[in-house]
Amino acid sequence: MLSERRLQVLRAIVQDYVGTEEPVGSKALTERHNLGVSPATVRNDMAALEEEGYIAQPHTSAGRIPTDKGYRLFVDKLAEIKPMSAPERRAIQNFLDGAVDLDDVVARTVRLLAQLTRQVAVVQYPSLTRSTVRHVELLSLAPARLMLVLITDTGRVEQRVIDCPAPFGETSLADLRARLNSRIAGRRFRDVPQLVEDLPESFEVDDRGTVSTVLSTLMETLVEENEERLVIGGTANLTRFAHDFPLTIRPVLEALEEQVVLLRLLGETKSTDMTVSIGHENAHEGLNSTSIVSVGYGSGGEAVAKLGVVGPTRMDYPGTMGAVRAVARYVGQILAES
Amino acid sequence: MLSERRLQVLRAIVQDYVGTEEPVGSKALTERHNLGVSPATVRNDMAALEEEGYIAQPHTSAGRIPTDKGYRLFVDKLAEIKPMSAPERRAIQNFLDGAVDLDDVVARTVRLLAQLTRQVAVVQYPSLTRSTVRHVELLSLAPARLMLVLITDTGRVEQRVIDCPAPFGETSLADLRARLNSRIAGRRFRDVPQLVEDLPESFEVDDRGTVSTVLSTLMETLVEENEERLVIGGTANLTRFAHDFPLTIRPVLEALEEQVVLLRLLGETKSTDMTVSIGHENAHEGLNSTSIVSVGYGSGGEAVAKLGVVGPTRMDYPGTMGAVRAVARYVGQILAES
DNA sequence: GCTTGGCACTCGACGCGTAAGAGTGCCAGC
DNA sequence: GCTGGCACTCTTACGCGTCGAGTGCCAAGC
């Protein structure tokens, strides 16, 4: 177990390193934080911290920098989430209140997060499986061609064109539309399959093929994978810390374009808790020198999707966590209102 | 006027510089291209080309590199668009054929363009004003709350929630829906305003307020500005040429996130012609060392939106132009089919 | 008059050795 | 257990000489 002072030394190292982006030495530490001890003592503590793997030196005679393990301890035990100031909160609310539709909410959120944290922001569209159906609309495009439109409680709209196995009359169409809505409107997506299971049977034999096709298209639309779109912003912020990582920026950009990778990272926990994933804790190799701060957000108490930021492991964790939490809360409010 | 050989020298300089990314000297030129003259002669030609502003040297005693003016001449007079090979064309078609909806088409297009050109790809969503209405749907969410869904011939769907000034009955709703569709289905967006101008008058006094609100929301939805969304991909390719421009990558990323800027750049010409904008020809300062190759695409003969790539001025123009043109053609086909 | 070979010159890239400086580890004393 | 002192290590910066690519110019040749 580390003594209280050694933890303070670790905290000071993290804070200074995040601020200066340079390895921090014992002398500088005692000057900038009044630890009440001399540099020599701090050196002893540093040696112990290094022994335990919390800090490391880039080369023999340089200052120390925190390791992933060091950041982990800092985040878990030493840091407190920094709340947003009142003006900041007002700015967030004002900015998000101007949104006109879901796309706009997401677009604004991503901009906001990127600006507040000065890092790369990632926002996942509200997931369908945890949402409810507001309405299903069926339109006839041609005798054997339909369009299915699905509207969710979060304001999202999905549409699919369906080629029917046989022509489908207007009366049958109206019938199907009405029955479908009466069964699933207001219900959760995940409950839909069993609610419509027996629907084809109640139609004329000629129409059953089309009804089945419509239903299976509907199911496909519900499948999470297709729906978990992401929006990314603030990639220009990557260049802020690229001067010592001119080579690191590429894998990060590549990873950011691999939506699958990001989704897995965001989706690891399904709760609303804030998650911080540091350096090598990220499964994806390209993100080994970045940290991801993410949190669930949603219109009720329940999370429907995640948002977060991707930045260097050397980031301002308290500030970033505060910004991410605040944005998630306000987005949740906006979604609940609309 | 420049002699034929001098133009050949310029062409050779552009080709070599694009290939090697290094200033090209007179000796190397005569070795790699059989110009039939000695290095000394080439030097004279180079001096003339430099005098005219087509090439420049980074410092005394280095090879020459093309200037923006040099690239301009190359693109206008010396280069021929390089057609895609048959296997490449097949690959493009296969890749795009797998798309399930408009979002998917756009997403795939952007990936494809980025891969083919190894540069940053930009694809604009089909613009509404040049599209036609396939269907308008009105749904009742609550007694005084409607949802308007607009479906375009390119498969795009837009929705808006409308708060009505007064409750609106189901019969009135069905009436409005039917009349609206009979008037504007199949018509161009730009013609819609005058087609529905007198619609409120034909409704009961109590309902007119709501009808007007619905119509004005519909108009808003048609306004181009809201609709010109862009999708960007392949930003990781920026790092390929960042080694000598570690400082240039940031303004480019910033410009790419400023959709307004990009839209203006793409939108300068409204035709289907291929446009190449080189270096300082770009109004936006951050893009002064990049070139933009763009072209209109659309489901018939008419362009409904643009797509293109952003890369260093030192790019393979013939190849890039070939890829952009080919992709635009195939996307147009896909849109026409669906 | 255009082309060519020769030649002196310029200037960045590279390698190397030195000096400076920051920071450490260890030890003896309090 | 803390502190000051000291020798040691290693990186970084700087200066300097060399090397080589490439140029511009000039006089000679076709």
From TrEMBL, chains A, B:
Role noted for this protein: Negative regulator of class I heat shock genes (grpE-dnaK-dnaJ and groELS operons). Prevents heat-shock induction of these operons.
Top-rank lineage group of the source organism: Bacteria
Domain HTH deoR-type: 34-62
Domain Heat-inducible transcription repressor HrcA C-terminal, residue spans: 103-321
Species annotation: Streptomyces thermogriseus
Name of protein: Heat-inducible transcription repressor HrcA
Keywords: Repressor, Stress response, Transcription, Transcription regulation
Coiled-coil stretches noted in the UniProt entry, renumbered to this chain: none
Repressor keyword on record: yes
Family: Belongs to the HrcA family.
Gene3D superfamilies referenced in this protein's UniProt entry, alphabetically: 3.30.450.40, Heat-inducible transcription repressor hrca homolog, domain 3, Winged helix-like DNA-binding domain superfamily/Winged helix DNA-binding domain
Database matches in InterPro entries: DeoR_HTH (IPR001034), GAF-like_dom_sf (IPR029016), HrcA (IPR002571), HrcA_C (IPR021153), WH-like_DNA-bd_sf (IPR036388), WH_DNA-bd_sf (IPR036390), WHTH_transcript_rep_HrcA_IDD (IPR023120)
